[in-house]
Amino acid sequence: MDARAPSLSAPIPRRSAWRLLLAEPTAIGAGCVLVLIVVLCLLAPVYAKDIAHTGPDATHVTETISLGGHPHDVVSPTGVPTGPTWHSRFLLGADKTGRDVAVRLLYGGRNSLEIAALATLITMVLAIALALLAGWFGGFLDTLICRLMDLIWSYPVLLLGVALGVTLAIDGIDLGFVTLHGGSLLLPALIIGVVYIPYMGRPLRARVLELRRSEFVDAALQQGLNGGRVALSEILPNLTSNVVVFAPLLLANAILLEAGLSFLGAGVQAPAPSWGTMISEGTQLMPEAIHLVLAPGLMLLAAVVAANLLGDTLRDLLDPRSRRRRVRASARGLTLAPLELPPPEAGPMPPAEPAR
Amino acid sequence: MIRFALWRIAATVAVLFAISVLTFLIFQVIPNGDPAVRLAGRLANTQEIHDVRRQWGFDKPIYVQYLRTMEQIFTGKVISYTQQVNVLEQIGQDLPATISLTVGAGLIWLVVGIALGLAGALLAEGGRLQRLLDRLLGALAMLGISMPSFLLGDVLLFYLGFKLHVFPLGGYVPLTQDPWAWLTHMILPWISLSILTIGFYSRLLRAGILDTLSEPYVRTARAKGLSERRVLIAHVLRNSLVPIVALWGLDFAAVLGGGALLTETVFNLGGVGQYAAESIQHLDIPPILVITMLTAFIVVLFSTITDVVQALLDPRVRLRS
Predict the structure, then answer these.
(1) Model confidence over A203-252: pLDDT tens digits?
(2) Strand (E) or helix (H) holding B191
(3) B175 and which of A41, B113, B138, B182 could share a cystine (Cβ 3.0–4.6 Å)?
(4) Alpha-carbon distance B87 to B77, whole Å?
């Protein structure tokens, strides 16, 4: 008998997976931070209107604010913007054109998160579709899709993203059914979404191949269901746990890649803010105004850490081979169903190529 | 072995071909990317633009342009559009900075990654305090893999460069010119580039070691009376290093081929990555084409090398085509 307790290496029922997740303080904390950041960014217009009394693109170069009773230039005559005031106006200081950093931080966060969420969605939908097509139909289609993913994979992620971003940012792209303009947020989302397809598509395809060989799929086919129907009703639901694990990790990677692209000028286009463009602007004003780098940087870091932690915990809980899952499950007195399926392919998840 | 080598060479050629075609297409489908307009200069009239187009062959069908560019690349005569310098010579000039960055950072992330991974795994098996330390290491690794290199680079530059004047503010000094200046200029880029990979490797290695520790052959090794140190190094670490070696080859190759666009740009190293970033911003196709092909070539080369190393490390891995 295998020493690694095969009776436990089966998929956990969904409800107990939820219960396990809710018993993880890390997961709850990470989830709360993520939700908090999203809510804060969604409230950007409220903050701008009622607290900061300015817009994300409104400049206040020549104005003065009173700090402790003394007038203070928003941007000094030598072009140095004020640092954090910790008051309702210019809470986190101003940038070089006298825009309120806190307001831009929230609006920029909205852009960054929107792009990352959209990109994650695009990657998930396309990766699932391609994995099902390749894994289920096999043959020439499989070879074609695999080679296509290999091609994207062997292309340096950042180079591909920046190349697409710069070329498309000028004129946008006409996809036939929809036209994306140069400044559209959909553009970076689409680029990031496409670039990360192999990251998720390749393990999913391997999973589909495995599931295709399993008995319940045979049974469904024997009952006379047609192939496409079986793929959708038997295979697709069984990909859920893989997809659930990938989603937060993809989100984290997408936020990072968006920042990298925007930093190089190939993502969100000025004057629209995003965390990446804000860090880039801050870098240019470096020695005088580090708050321009720190404010978006720390926000970005918090969001990415939270998403990564969530994904990590989920993987530990849902991966049949993980130690933590076994420990937690037995600690909570859950008995896991006997082995129905071969465990997913050995080895940890492939790393997404980082933007460095 | 010969079949393996032939197969790898064929695969390399195929990858290079596909990547060059893809790059060419990406930049050709853009309506605004007409290189003739940029080559002719800002004040050119229609006739001049037309002449440039004819002279550089932009009026030819796209496959003719592609073949011409490929011919220029392989004969070493390819000229960039914007600055009109020989791309291969420019890359040759930029290469020392990139090699310095890659070799230093690659060594750092390998050594520190393995050390922290091993420490984490050993601490995880220990008592209460040790497990707490392990969790701390885990949290640091998580922070590391979540940190964009340019953010870390900015922060390091500000506090250690601008504020404390411990390190210079970016730029590259050749090793042959002034070894000390070279070192001080490279330390911050090395750190910024390594942190992410260190976080990743240490987590991967820790998980691998913990998995391996419960393998029957480790029990056997202990049962036959080997010292714990020998079990760890000869049996556990050797096997857990297999995936790390594979990853290290790819990461090293990606940076060596100019993949560190962000780090090189933040520290103004003037390496291949920065050249790529600048070329992309000017839609300068020839350098981008050459650099992507260079990266792909180096990645394929190193993945072949790591395959061989893996086969040496792990008797179960066989070289296959």
Answers:
(1) 888 889 888 888 888 888 888 888 888 888 888 888 888 888 888 889 99
(2) helix B179-213
(3) B182
(4) 8
- pLDDT tens-digit series, residues A247-289: 888 999 999 999 998 888 888 887 889 999 999 888 888 888 8
- Listed as own residue / partner, the contacts of B76-80 with beta carbons closer than 8 Å and 24 or more positions apart are B78/B286, B78/B289, B78/B290, B79/B286, B80/B279, B80/B284, B80/B286, B80/B287
> Which residues are paired to A72 by β-bridges?
A65
In which residue are the tokens 């006997």 written? Answer: A338
Task: Calculate ∠ Cα B208-B214-B215, nearest 5°.
Answer: 90
Using CA atoms, how far apart are residues B200 and B197, in angstroms rounded to an integer?
5
- The verdict on B239 touching A (C-beta cutoff 8 Å) is no
Classify B35 in phi/psi space as left (phi over 0), alpha (psi -120 to 50) or beta.
Answer: alpha
Measure CB to CB from residue A283 to each of B154, B207, B292 and give the nearest one: B154
Name the residue facing B142 among A305, A323, A353 (closest C-beta): A305
Query: A162 and B283: CB-CB below 8 Å?
Result: no
Give the span between the Cα atoms of A242 and A252, in whole angstroms. Answer: 16
What are the b/e assignments for A230-260, b being 16+ CB within 10 Å? bbeebbbebbebbbbbbbbbbbbbbbbbbbb
Tokens at A257, concatenated: 């890649």
Select from A32, A99, A16, A107 the least CA-distant residue to A63: A99
pTM for the model stands at 0.86
* Segment (H or E) for A66: strand A64-67
Tokens of A220: 């469904």
Dihedral pair phi/psi, residue A92, rounded to 5°: -110, 20
Contacts of B148 in chain A (CB under 8 A): 256, 259-260, 263, 279, 297, 300, 355
